[in-house]
Amino acid sequence: MFERLIKVVGGFARRTDGNIAIITALMAIPMLFLAGMGVDYGLASMREQQLDAYADAAALAAVTPTMMAQNTSVGVTAAKNTFNAQAGQLSDVKNLSLNVAIATAGSKRSATVSYTASYVTTFPQFLGDTMGITGTSTATGGLAPNIDFYLLLDDSPSMAIAATQAGINTMVANTSPQGGCAFGCHETHPQADNLGNPGGEDNYALARNLGVTLRIDLLRQAAQNLMSTASSTEASNHSSYRMGIYTFDHQINTLQTLTSNLTTAGTSAGNISLLTVYDNNNLTSTNNNSDTDTNYDTAFTTLNTAMPNPGSGTNTTGDTPQEVLFLVSDGVEDEMSGGSRKIQVPPLADCTTIKNRGIRIAVLYTTYLPLPTNAFYNSYVAPFQTNISPTLTSCASPGLFFQVNTGGDISAAMAALFGLAIQSSYLSQ
């Protein structure tokens, strides 16, 4: 029997027809391990970048001109609130521990924000349940500078989404012939799309008749409120702020050239309106542009030309104001380039070109809401949805990124971001 066993084993060893399958099976385990490890390392790195940006914003929040007039405990609270408001949105980050330290020397103050956290892994069987991530940011502040702001505001059809979840539900419930549409798109010829709305109205009119507030409505009000905030702040800070207001869709639109008259700027902000199209896929009756109505390249290039090189913002003779590009958008580019349609995150190269000139970019991301029942979203936006926030974070200058979710207060978010931009503080770590 022993000799027979040796023959069987020997025969098996001499056969080669199954070796490839065996080797593949054996290699599958380490390959799966490496793939899972790569996914988790990549996601952990992305979360660390986001938390670093929140730490930057928190450190800067502690040394604003307003905070400079308060005792350090108020600055510590402001930093913690700023960090936690953003970090709390990351569902796969747990065990957050935050430390804020503030030191004052003469007319300057520095704030150091340090955090530790745990990223909850997607494949715990490979790297364990969590991965540790840490970061530190330090900001120093002084007197408030003079600043020119160039507001670049997205007025493309995607900004016609209902502003709250209740509004979204109402729009979807009243657009069943369209399969349920959460957007109040503005069309001059809606009958071509057979929307099925009462009286042949477009979805914009439907939203108005249903009493649904759209995101573009909140953006308009927020921009008007910002002018009032800027006016009162420049008086208290003994600084000067000028405002230029632009919207962008398939092109860029000038609502207000740079002005120091913030009352006039507020009136101009009241003219912010949604792009009106002819019907689905058609910008006009003779222009079928396939709804490519969010052109970041044109917007950034135009404003890069319009904005002068920045100064230091002091009142010293010969000095000029600092320059800040203030972008508000849901972060999805949709434009024609080289004869093909591009639906993607905004190009970081455009942001880099502007920042390399010493111009800061403040970004308010009005979250692009996942709409799993929408065919366009599933086909074109869902594949890069999770990359929008990190990309806009990278576009923004350190500490000048803010995100507001559906139903959030855009006015408060714009005011908070403005507050971060006007300080004379800078990141030193």
Anisotropy-based shape: globular
Structural domains: how many: 2
Helical stretch tally: 14
Reading the helices and strands in chain order gives HHHHEEHEEHEHHEEHEEEHEEEHEHHEHE
Report the portion of residues in β strands.
15-25%
Proportion of helical residues: 40-55%
Task: State the fourth-level CATH superfamily of the largest domain.
Answer: von Willebrand factor, type A domain
Largest sheet entry: 6 strands, mixed
| CATH fold-level topology of the largest domain | Rossmann fold
Helix-strand makeup class: alpha/beta
Q: Ends: how far apart?
A: 75 Å
Structure description:
With 429 residues, the protein is an alpha/beta fold. The protein folds into 2 domains: 22-141, no CATH class; 147-161 and 214-423, Rossmann fold, CATH 3.40.50. Helices cover 41% and strands 24% of the residues. The protein is built from 14 helices and 16 strands. The strands form 5 sheets. A 6-stranded mixed β-sheet has the order 7-6-4-11-14-15, with helices on both faces. A hairpin with a 3-residue loop joins strand 6 (241-248) and strand 7 (252-259). The chain starts with a helix and ends with a strand. The mean pLDDT is 88.
Looking at this protein, list some descriptive labels.
429 residues, alpha/beta, Rossmann fold, 2 domains, six-stranded mixed beta sheet, four-stranded antiparallel beta sheet, 16 strands, 41% helix, globular
